[in-house]
Specification:
InterPro entries: SNase_OB-fold_sf, Staphylococal_nuclease_OB-fold, Thermonucl_AS. This protein is α+β, with helices and mostly antiparallel strands. Helices cover 52% and strands 13% of the residues. The radius of gyration is 61 Å and the shape is rod-shaped.
């Protein structure tokens, strides 16, 4: 080997050794860490300066998933999965700190960077966490808030009307149903009944959402509660107003239903009375016609009988009858101007002088 080549080889070897020493020294400081595992959406375990350490990301709060005293919040599992996609075991990260380095649970508080990507901000920009201030640590708040505002503008994650558990979706869907409750008066019993049912269903659904959101507390649902208070302060009042309107409409449609039912009964009663009258008139007319037909038939029968008897008389020869000639008795001759006693014959029509 030439001398020059030997010196080059020695120089390279020294450089690698020196570089390795620098690298090892760097990752023994508290400004760097190596990811071990993700705990939830804003907490991760890593090795810092040779010590296994649990790190809570600064100025970002994601929906709860692991706290046994709290319910699993909307998009909590998704926030954990998102952080797992950003920080995988073995990844090397850079850490920055603020005034307080630990929280009351003994977790290290830090801003985490990976390949110049600010992880705290990325979570907020995905809509899977919100910017928070825990005094005196506010150093990274503005940058995390900028990420959150991006998510709001793009309606991502917790700000999406397409995510069923998110506040915009819950309130928005309820308001859509409530806005579709018809306000015009029904014209039929069926229509009024349907309108009242629709109003009742929409009001019940809206009331359920309202009660559910009002039941949230900072202890049980910290992220959802904070969003409701800070980002959607008018959502509940608007929802309650729409629920009340739907309930009023339900009452109106129910009253209209009762009116239409009453009108329907009266109409059917009048129709029944009119029908009964028509039937009675038809019956009377039919009976009169039947009586007239019976009378006509009887008269026809009598006429035929009379005609038959007349025909029979015409066809039977009448016996010839002779009237005996009356013989007037001869009047006795009496003296003219006889004034003596008269003796009358039986019947008193003729007489003769007595003596």
């Amino acid at each position: 080997m030439k001398k020059s080549s030997a010196w080059i080889s020695i120089a390279l070897t020294g450089s690698l050794i020196t570089g390795g020493a620098v690298y090892a020294t760097t990752y023994k400081s508290d400004k760097h860490g190596v990811i071990t595992r993700v705990i939830d959406g804003d907490t991760v375990d890593m090795t810092i300066a040779g010590t296994q350490t649990r790190v809570r990301l600064l100025n970002i709060d994601t929906p709860e998933t692991v706290d046994p005293s709290k319910a699993v919040e909307c998009l909590g599992p998704e926030a954990s999965e998102h952080l797992e996609s950003l920080l995988q075991p073995g990844d090397k990260v850079e850490l920055q700190y603020d005034v307080e380095r630990e929280d009351r649970y003994g977790r290290t508080l830090a801003a985490v960077y990976k390949d110049d990507e600010f992880i705290n901000r990325s979570i907020a920009a995905a809509g899977l966490g919100i910017a928070v201030k825990y005094e005196p640590n506010t150093k990274f708040y503005d940058e995390v808030l900028a990420g959150q505002l991006e998510a709001e503008a793009q309606t991502s994650g917790l700000f999406s009307p397409e995510v069923s558990c998110a506040i915009p979706s819950q309130v928005g869907n309820a308001l859509t149903e409530l806005d579709q409750v018809p306000s015009e008066a029904a014209t039929t019993v069926e229509e009024a009944e349907s309108m009242a049912a629709d109003a009742a269903a929409a009001a019940a659904a809206g009331l359920l959402v309202s009660k559910s959101l009002k039941s949230l507390t900072p202890d049980t649902h910290p992220v959802t509660y904070a969003l409701l208070a800070k980002k959607f302060p008018n959502a509940l009042s608007k929802l309650d107003s729409s629920v009340q309107k739907a309930q009023d409409l339900e009452g109106q449609h129910s009253e209209r239903h009762r009116e239409l039912v009453k009108e329907e009964k009266e109409r059917k009663k009048k129709e029944a009375e009119a029908k009964a009258k028509r039937e009675a008139e038809k019956k009377a007319k039919r009976e009169a016609q039947e009586a007239a037909e019976r009378q006509a038939a009887q008269q026809a029968a009598e006429r035929r009988a009379t005609e038959r008897r007349a025909a029979e008389r015409r066809s039977t020869p009448q016996p010839r009858t002779t009237t005996p000639r009356r013989i007037e008795p001869k009047r006795p001759s009496v003296p003219k101007n006889y004034t003596g006693p008269r003796c009358y014959a039986p019947g008193g029509k003729t007489w003769k002088p007595c003596g």
